[in-house]
Each structure stands twice: as structure tokens, then as C-alpha cells.
Design a protein that fits this description.
The chain is α/β, with parallel strands linked by helices. It is built from 11 helices and 15 strands. The chain has an 8-stranded parallel beta barrel with strand order 7-8-9-10-11-12-13-14, surrounded by 6 helices. Helix 3 crosses helix 4.
Amino acid sequence: MIVVMKPQASEPSIHAVTKYIEENGLQIHLSRGEEVTIIGIVGDKSRLSTENLRVFKDVDRIIPVTESYKLANRKFHPAPTTVKVGNTSIGPGNLTIMAGPCAVETQEQLLCIAREVKAAGATILRGGAYKPRTSPYSFQGLEEEGLKYMQEAKAATGLSTICEVVSLEAIEAAGKYVDMIQIGARNMQNFILLKEAGQSGLPVLLKRGLCSTIDEWLNAAEYIIAEGNPNVVLCERGIRTYETATRNTLDLSAVPVLRERTHLPIIVDPSHSTGSYKYVGPMARAAVASDADGLMIEVHNDPAHALSDGPQSLNFAKFTALTEELKPFCHLMGRSFHEQ
């Protein structure tokens, strides 16, 4: 439930309510607006008497929260969240572009791609050092060596960096080299990994699971936030349906639904969802028009010879053309490319 305080409620009144809640063994989440303060309550509400809460000075009303996720809920946190990632931020007012190869292959390759995507408008370099693949015989990534290349690319270009993690050991290694970690679709409900990501202190990009509902996705985010890490960004990357024309089905309706239900930033990945470079541009433009906070796009210097996901990767010319095409859509939505 949430307790809505009256406009301009005094600090002693707010303190009295929060103290009563905590004395009954529950946790609080304070959200302060310009006029109204909202106190979110997390825990077993049966311990509390709502009638007792109503008699506190400056309590306006008490609203039940039926959703199982609380800290990720917009009811608890009405204002949109901005997540700081290295030299840049993800949130309202700008369009954050994450771009780079699906997999880090060599030092030279990554530096080359980093320079090109930055010149075209990206502010975060993506690159996979740990690659959970469907086939055990596919390229699995360079692991910590790849993370070192990410760090070198940041030093050379100033781009912030993000890499997927698949284990506690990967999280610990990533924390030494990159600015943000990614929980991939296959691990969205790996609850132990979600808790470890929450405890890492690093910003987390949480991709939607292959067959997950929006509520399941938000509950996964709740695992991370509940560990004390509020810096979570959601990434829609397509879900599995009966359609086979694309790799997955990009659910752009998730963007407005999430905007209504959560305060967390929302990124769209048109590369993994479509599986083909031909469809990345149209879906990227549609994502911006749907009010996404950013895009994650796979870019490669030589897609035909990429070790992972070449068919969905844009070459440099196509990526540069796309970022130019996105500008009027950003203007339409009141956004701009975020500058470092």
C-alpha cells in the first residue's frame, strides 16, 4: 500500500508516519514531489492497522497496491527515474543509443567500432564478452579479456560501456571494467543472478525473457531493486510467438504499458527482436515514436564475417544513416540525442 500525505505535509508528520511503519517491521520507500510526499510500504501489511494510519496528522489517503512488484511500481515512485551510466544518463528528455558488436572479437575490431558508433551519435558501447548461445559449439565470448578491451575502448573514446553477465564471477569481473551490466533474456528469471546484480552496485539493463509477461518482467526488476540497487533499465527485445518471419516478435506495445506501470527507463532492441538488419531501421523509428528512452543496436565492421549475429548487425554506413533518420522522430517526441 501507499500513504499519500497532504500537500506541504510537515517533516515531523512524515517522520511520525514512517516511524510507525518501521516499528511494525515493514520497510518504507519515500517519494517526494514538489507538493506531495508518497510513502510506499513494503512487507506484510497485515501487521499494520490502516485505521491507525489514518489518524496521523497530514495523512491524506491510503491506497492499496495490488501488484506484487512495489519498488518498480509507478504508484510508489510517480516521477520517472533517470539512470546514470558512466558519462551518460538514460531517462526522459533524450534518446540514449547503445551500439556495438554482439560479441567482442578482437581489440582492434572493438576500437574501430567504438570510434564509428560514437561519431554517429551513440553514447554507450555495447559488446558481449560472455555469450550464452543456443548451441554449445557457437562462439562463447572472450570473457575477461573482452572486458579489458571494453575498458580500453572507453579510455580511447569516452563512451560508457555495457556487457552481459551470466554468473556471479562474471559480475565481479565486469565490475572492474565496465559501467553497466546486462541480464540477458535467458537469465531474466535467474533469481540468484538478479540478487547478485542488485548487490553489485552497478546499473543493470534487464532484458525481457523470451516468453515472459510484463508483470513477470517487472517482478524480475523488483528482485534487483529490493537488494538496494534502484538503477535498473528495462529492455524490450522481442518475445517468442507463432510468427517465424522474424527472429522474435517485437512488442512495442510494452513501451506504453511499462510507461503506465513503472518509473524505470525503457530501452528497445530492434536487432535481437527482428534478427535481420533490414528491419532494424523501421523498428528503431517506431520505438522512438512509442516513447522509448533509448535503443540498443548491433553494429559490426564486417557483418558477413561476424562471430555472432552478423545477419542482424548494421554496418557503419547503415548505422550512421539510421541515426540521422531518427532525429525528426526524436524531435516529434520532445527528445534529443543525449550528449556526453
